[in-house]
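Its record is quoted verbatim for completeness.
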Amino acid sequence: MSRIGRLPVSVPKGVTLTVTHGSIQVKGPKGSLTSPLFDGISCALDGAKAVCGGRGEAKRDKALHGTARALSRNAVKG
């Protein structure tokens, strides 16, 4: 399991994070960004934090788990 992927993404005040099938949309005071959500990767909101996880045990899912979390964090930060 990815060490980076296990960390939750903090969502600050004024920023909204919406998870749809295939993407994560982030809207904030500086604009909006969309980050892809790969097949086999899930993302859930838990209060002011977003938690990404792999749904399966496939090698591809494990490889993209940390990448999906990093892309969503960069969208929130940006």
Observations:
- The chain has a mean pLDDT of 88.
